[in-house]
Recover the amino acids of this structure.
């Protein structure tokens, strides 16, 4: 299968309904501050008409667009929903979106639970999820990227998270959407070294990066909420990621407690600043 | 279907059962109890939050213990087959329709109110595109009158459109109320109460697209047992014009007689 991943560059922002109004304002008043690319969640926009279809067209026409699914249940116990994958493929074609990503996780048990469940880190799970990723890639006619998810507990396993991730990337022959915040959250919640994890990731598989804020619920527990600003240790980890793997397109996710748009734009500016810092160091 | 489950599937079902049912006694192997509680809370709050924003009136009028126990039962019992998030609330409606016993103390109009609240969302999301209708209504009896393409019509035993914390009906209405919802050309939403005759006409149009105004009126006369269809045809243009003024009709298409 050929990789038709259209490499985006720079700093991107996840498209959310709650941001549309301010986003349009920014397009009129300060277009120089706009994100370099966007990411949409097909599951939130597929099969919609009226205003939503018009907005989707507006944004996908103007910005290089990546996509990030939620409902495929790549690791799930049910058969893949091939009908849904067909609809997904048509949506991606309709809006000219070359690149699709999903979570290394599952979200069904005969029905949808609408959030991400932790896979056990076992050889059996590697085998299962990899064969399904291959099937999805085949049906969509695209190489896809999988995201390392945040998790708060994992059912009994036999390998580490990083070994599990690397095994799936290799077995499924797919790309990686590396979520830097998730590495931080997991390293904290499961007491491992985030730098070791980042260093071990195969550079050539990285498609793009995610950044997000989280919630420190208790001293030993961070919840991955996408509801707050990115914190300093995660910014540091982003810089470390660039130093390990070179500059990668980086997308800011914000799903809850949406702040005024300019605060998100300020965070994009930080991403760009780090990207330029690394580029000029390298030059 | 009884088939042998792999160890992976066993681990997965064990985990999700423990999430769906907080009273479930088994803690999945490898999962600390307090972290299981974190998952339980995250998953349930997510579902509850989606229901609250999709069904704001239900959320407003039900005591919080009741809406919580409904949401818990829904999450425990229902297998949802809608991967698209915006349409997930419809699964709650399906569950209300399918479940065998209502929750103690729930109002008798719960399903109808949920249907009405879902209709609003469904109309806003509808992928149908606006047709190119002519606004010439003069010759509507010979032309093909067109309904607003997103229009949905429902008959209710309770005045669901008026329910709020200040108005909770205890008895059903003497006669059903007919409510239509549709998207307006400026992408807003309009709700209209129709009288019985208009509702019957709109229902006929929904079921038989592509007929002339006259054909619709004759069908209505027959349905209503009108001996004199000609009399109804006499009012016909006015009848359709009222619906047009309300936005229920978007105009007409030319009828090409061949």
């Amino acid at each position: 299968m050929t990789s038709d991943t259209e490499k985006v560059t720079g700093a991107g922002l996840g498209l959310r309904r709650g941001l549309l109004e301010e986003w349009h304002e920014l397009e009129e008043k300060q277009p120089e501050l706009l994100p370099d690319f966007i990411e949409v969640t097909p599951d939130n926009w597929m099969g919609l008409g009226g205003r939503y279809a018009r907005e989707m067209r507006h944004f996908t026409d103007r910005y290089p667009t990546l996509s990030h699914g939620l409902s495929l249940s790549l690791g799930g116990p049910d058969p893949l929903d091939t009908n849904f994958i067909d609809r997904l493929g048509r949506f991606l074609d309709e809006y000219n979106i070359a690149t699709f990503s999903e979570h290394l996780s599952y979200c069904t048990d005969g029905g949808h639970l609408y959030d991400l469940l932790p896979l056990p880190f076992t050889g059996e799970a590697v085998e299962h999820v990899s064969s399904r990723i291959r099937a999805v890639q085949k049906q969509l006619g695209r190489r896809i990227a999988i995201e390392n998810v945040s998790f708060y507990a994992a059912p009994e396993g036999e390998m580490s998270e990083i070994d599990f991730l690397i095994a799936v990337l290799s077995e499924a022959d797919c790309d990686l959407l590396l979520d830097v915040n998730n590495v931080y959250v997991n390293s904290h919640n499961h007491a491992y070294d985030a730098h070791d994890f980042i260093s071990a990731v195969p550079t050539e598989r990285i498609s793009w990066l995610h950044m997000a804020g989280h919630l420190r619920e208790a001293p030993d527990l961070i919840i991955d909420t996408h509801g707050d600003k990115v914190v300093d240790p995660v910014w540091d980890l982003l810089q470390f990621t660039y130093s390990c793997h070179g500059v990668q397109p980086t997308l800011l996710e914000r799903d809850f407690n949406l702040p005024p748009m300019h605060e998100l734009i300020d965070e994009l500016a930080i991403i760009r600043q780090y990207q330029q810092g690394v580029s000029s160091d390298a030059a | 279907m009884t088939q042998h489950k792999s160890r992976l599937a066993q681990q997965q079902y064990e985990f999700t059962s423990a999430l769906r049912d907080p009273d479930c006694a088994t803690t999945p192997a490898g999962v600390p109890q307090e972290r299981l509680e974190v998952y339980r809370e995250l998953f349930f709050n997510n579902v509850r939050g989606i229901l609250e924003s999709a069904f704001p009136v239900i959320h407003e009028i039900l005591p919080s213990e009741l809406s919580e126990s409904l949401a818990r039962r829904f999450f425990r019992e229902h297998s949802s087959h809608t991967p698209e998030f915006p349409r997930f609330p419809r699964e709650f409606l399906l569950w209300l329709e399918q479940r065998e016993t209502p929750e103690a103390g729930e109002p008798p109009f719960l399903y109808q109110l949920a249907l009405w609240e879902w209709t609003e969302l469904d109309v806003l999301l509808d992928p149908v595109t606006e047709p190119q209708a002519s606004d010439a209504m003069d010759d509507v009896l010979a032309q093909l009158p067109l309904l607003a393409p997103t229009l949905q019509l429902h008959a209710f035993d309770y005045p669901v459109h008026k329910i709020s914390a200040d108005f909770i009906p205890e008895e059903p209405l003497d006669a059903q109320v007919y409510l239509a919802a549709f998207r307006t050309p400026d992408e807003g939403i309009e709700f209209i109460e129709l009288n019985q005759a208009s509702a019957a006409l709109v229902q006929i149009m929904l079921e038989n697209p592509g007929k002339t105004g006259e054909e619709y009126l004759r069908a209505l006369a027959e349905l209503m047992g009108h001996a004199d269809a000609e009399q109804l045809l006499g009012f016909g243009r006015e009848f359709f014009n009222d619906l047009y003024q309300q936005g229920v009709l978007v105009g007409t298409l030319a009828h090409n007689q061949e």
Q: What stands out?
A: The interface with chain B takes residues 41, 43-44, 46-54, 70-72, 76-77, 81, 84, 106, 109-115, 117-118, 120, 122, 124-125, 128, 152-157, 217, 221, 223 of chain A (CB under 8 Å). DSSP finds ten helices and twelve strands in chain A. Residues 23 and 77 of chain A are 39 Å apart (CA to CA). The radius of gyration of chain A is 18 Å.
